[in-house]
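Data availability (excerpt). All sequences and predicted token strings are deposited with the supplementary files. A representative entry, DUF3847 domain-containing protein, is shown inline so that the format can be inspected without opening the archive.
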Amino acid sequence: MKDSEQIRQESKEINDKIDDTEERLRQLKNQEQKILKQNTVKRKKERTHRLITRRPILESLIENAEELTDEEIKILLEEATKTKA
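Structure token line:
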């Protein structure tokens, strides 16, 4: 039969393990958030780079592009990319 001191010691060990596990879980959640944030920043940088790279290409192919409004450019691109049925 276990005495009360042994039971208290086992209980303390179990609680310590629970605390350690909860701390590890917090660390992993923080790590997950950090990775998700890094991924978001990376995607934004890639998009910005893509937009900066493609703009001159589009403007070089559209006559007087600098004189057209954004809406006119949008309409022009929509018409140019329609597939013929």
